[in-house]
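Changelog note: in this version the structure field was regenerated for every chain. One regenerated record is shown below for reference.
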Amino acid sequence: MTTPYNRAHHGFAVFTAFATFFLIIAGALVTSNDAGLAVPDWPTTFHSFRMPSMVGGVLYEHGHRMIAGFTILLTLGIAISTWLVDRRRWMKNLALAAFSTIIVQAILGGITVLHFLPPAVSTAHAVVGQTFFCLAVAIALFTGRHWVQEQPRIAVDRRRPSLVTLTLLSIALLYVQLILGGMFRHKGMGWQPHVIHSLLVVIVVTWTAIRVLSYYSQLEALRRPAIIVLGLLIAQLCLGFLSFLARVVWGGEVAQPTPMMIWSTVAHVSVGALLLATTVVLAIQTWRHVAVPQTEAEPLSSRTQKAVIA
């Protein structure tokens, strides 16, 4: 089922995605400033719903909660507006899934505070948060004019592994990297697994982006996210190295986080979220624009035959 393009709905979805990215930055500031227990109760703040004095770690922790509450309201608004204006049933279900995900995210945030920041729960909070960001970005993509109104151009992929496989593998490896990084930041393991696994991430993500640029550069929907993925990957490597120097080499013995430790880590987390979300977009566009025959002898569908360009 198709749906007409709704500019207001799309703009709302884009705004929600930006608000979610801001929420991830706020969450990274809480962890990087060691402010996770600055407010020791949840969902209240110092056993009250009144605004506390926004000083010290309370500024980061309570500020993070305020931004999270605002994002939950935005997501509820997206879910309601999707059910009202979007005719696609799968979009309605996706909007409900996004709302359910941010509720789970909020509950995990409360559990990790009430149980004094156990690394596994704090890491799950980070992983679910970035999963919700990917959902918000996907909703913004699916409500866009290009997705709703344009007939997709189809290319055929006969190479192995297929581009679909590479994009999905990239996402899986980025998730593993996110979990390893979260466990390190929350003091659940050392830095070695995160650094070693990053080599595998670099190889597969670069392979995926180069495959796109080598064989499907005529498809704007694939070329643009592939270029962004490469740029973000390079930035993420530089920020990861800087964060490693600040946190492990230079700051191993300091009692309080230094500004270099804080901002390099926050930037590393933020760019990592952008890299994961852009790779998800690349996977979605690959699924839409690249057909994969099951066998060499398999005839293409009539729709694909008309639209094949590569």
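Spot check on this record: The first helix runs from residue 7 to 32. The radius of gyration is 21 Å.
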